[in-house]
Amino acid sequence: MSKQYTIYGNPVVHSKSPQMHNAGFKLLNIDASYSKTLLEDGSKIKEEFLSTNISGANITVPHKEAAFANADIVDEFASKIGAVNTFINENGKVKAYNTDAPGFYKAIEEFGEVKNVLLLGAGGTAKAIAVILRSKDIKVTILNRSQNSRDFFTNIGCRFYDHDSLRLFFSGGGVDFDYDLIVNSTSAGLKDDNYPAPLELLRPALRNASFAIDCIYGKITPFLQIAKDLNIRYKDGEDMLLYQGVLAFELFTSTKATPQLIKTMRDGLKS
Ligand code: NDP
Q1: If one looks up domain 3-98+239-270 in CATH, what number appears?
Q2: 102-236 has which fold?
Q3: I want to staple 95 with a disulfide (CB 3.0 to 4.6 A). Which of 73, 89, 257, 267 is the partner?
């Protein structure tokens, strides 16, 4: 019998995950199909998942925390993040994983060694990124417009500044911008032309950095435009999206991704 997979989100209409996973199933001759499911009430995600004979699912905005809270078994790493993006049906129980974090790490691997990261934003994506970077002993400084989730980040060993406190510190000469990688994990630039942090902080931080990555994909955001103008290596969020999908695909199919599978899934993403 054909296996069914889906992505839950609200909205979900723009998700590229079906193209990516269906291309992978086709390549490996796996009898399976992947669809999109609009889910309005995240607290119902477990019932919805178990009642519809779905073997595995991805979860996107805004349900990742609800998915975490409703899963039967949460992978140890995902439980540090408090959000999950992948469900597997294991004999009628929901086992949950977070592949966003290792997907991000895979995306920055080609930059080479990274030791000190400035992470813009403190939302769900920033939490996943901070947890994976700290697990690799990489220094992480959070810069967010508000104090939201400050304790989460300081508890895992990150420094935390809001815009005003870093501006004050910077103007007093108390900050060396010696970050090798700057990450935009805010939604600034997604549907607007905003910068994720004040320019007087962003420019010197990027000027001294070697690499920049934006989690937003498919466009040069104002943040990436500065990196481009400064001639530092940069990428958008496409690889992050691809690799979270590849890692979820490995969980769905109990296979190890080959370069050919990764290429096929990337082509699927772009189709
Ligand atoms: P959240 O809503 O959880 O967090 C948004 C963050 O952005 C918060 O820190 C918020 O600050 C900050 N923010 C929002 N607007 C602005 C602004 N105008 N200026 C400065 N900061 C702002 O979102 P997520 O963490 O889920 O997603 C963040 C981004 O990552 C999105 O653009 C999303 O599309 C992208 N993403 C990409 C993925 C990929 O695979 N490539 C995967 C997941 C997400 P505050 O805390 O003060 O509200």
Answers
A1: 3.40.50.10860
A2: Rossmann fold (3.40.50)
A3: 73
Q: Which two tokens stand for residue 202?
A: 């962003």
Crossing angle of helices 238-253 and 17-27, in 10° steps, is: 50
The binding-site residues of ligand 1, defined as CB within 6 angstroms of any ligand atom, are 61, 100, 121-126, 144-146, 148, 185-188, 190, 194, 196, 215-217, 237, 240-241, 244
| Å from CA of 190 to ligand 1 middle | 9
Nearest CA to ligand 1 atom 16: 188
CA 216 to centroid of ligand 1, rounded, Å: 9
How many Cβ atoms sit within 10 Å of the Cβ of residue 192? 10
Residue 27 and residue 69 in contact, taking contact as beta carbons nearer than 8 Å: no
Residue ranges of the domains in the chain?
Answer: 3-98+239-270, 102-236
- Residues 34-84: pLDDT tens digits? 999 999 999 999 999 999 989 999 999 999 999 999 999 999 999 999 999
Give 129-142 pLDDT, tens digit per residue.
999 999 999 999 99
Work out which ligand 1 atom sits closest to the CA atom of 187.
32
Q: In this structure, which residue's CA is closest to atom 20 in ligand 1?
A: 196
Concerning whether 64 is annotated as a catalytic residue, the answer is yes
CA of 179 to the centre of ligand 1 (A): 21
- Catalytic site residue from 16, 36, 46, 64: 64
